[in-house]
Amino acid sequence: MRRVGVMGGTFDPVHHGHLVAASEAAHRCNLDEVLFVPAGQPWQKSDRVVTAAEDRYLMTVIATTDDPRFSVSRVDIDRPGPTYTVDTLRDLTSYYAAAGIEASLFFITGADALAEIASWYESADLLALAHFIAVTRPGHVLVDPGFSAESVTFIEIPALDVSSTDCRARVAEGAPIRYLVPEGVREYIAKRNLYVRAES
């Protein structure tokens, strides 16, 4: 049975915090691989403009090339309509079954996000599709919302106080993001003029 970590996210942009969380989850939960899945149209981010999916996908590919355990899937980008975690997990389950690969899915998410799982689309089906790995984030108090150990594993990761929101804001302000994101991602952002504040 192949143990596959699934790390969904907007990745706008992907940063070192994402990579550390994926690496720690792979180590602590004995995962064979971690599949990064950039969202196509993230339904929870409908209140702001999200960078084009292709740019977010390519940045994630660049960020993950140095770790042989990491790969990137287009499953959410290529599916039309809003991106829901339940669809991601169903599509990946079908993909591995069609490929003849026995796979057990482990969905990696923030512990703070997991606390809101009841509000997720078709949430009742989620825990049947994957084991959830809830990772802590800086400043978040780890509180077990009552899930069984068979459904959710809570792990603490080294604190990296970096977020995609902060990275975008720093670029807009002309502040450096070196060491917050992989160097290739920083170069891609500069080349594509991403997150630069529009001239008024």
Short descriptors:
alpha/beta; six-stranded parallel sheet; 200 residues; 8 helices; 17% strand; 6 strands
Sequence-ordered SSE layout with sheet pairings:
Elements: E1 2-9, H1 16-28, E2 33-38, H2 53-64, E3 70-72, H3 75-78, H4 85-98, E4 103-110, H5 111-114, H6 126-129, E5 131-135, E6 152-155, H7 164-173, H8 183-192
Parallel strand pairs: 1-2, 1-4, 2-3, 4-5, 5-6
Describe what this molecule looks like in 3D.
The protein has 200 residues and is of the alpha/beta class. 36% of the residues lie in helices and 17% in strands. It is built from eight helices and six strands. Strand 2, helix 2 (53-64) and strand 3 form a beta-alpha-beta unit. It is globular. The model has no long low-confidence stretch (mean pLDDT 89).
Task: Put the structure in a nutshell.
By secondary structure, the protein is of the alpha/beta class.
Structural class: alpha/beta
Distance between the termini: 55 Å
N-to-C order of helices and strands = EHEHEHHEHHEEHH
Shape: globular
Number of helices: 8
Strand content: 15-25%
Low-confidence stretches: none
Strands of the largest sheet, in order across it?
Answer: 3-2-1-4-5-6
Radius of gyration, in Å, reads 17 Å
Mean pLDDT: 89
Count of beta strands: 6
Give helix % range.
25-40%
Reported for the largest beta sheet, the result is:
6 strands, parallel
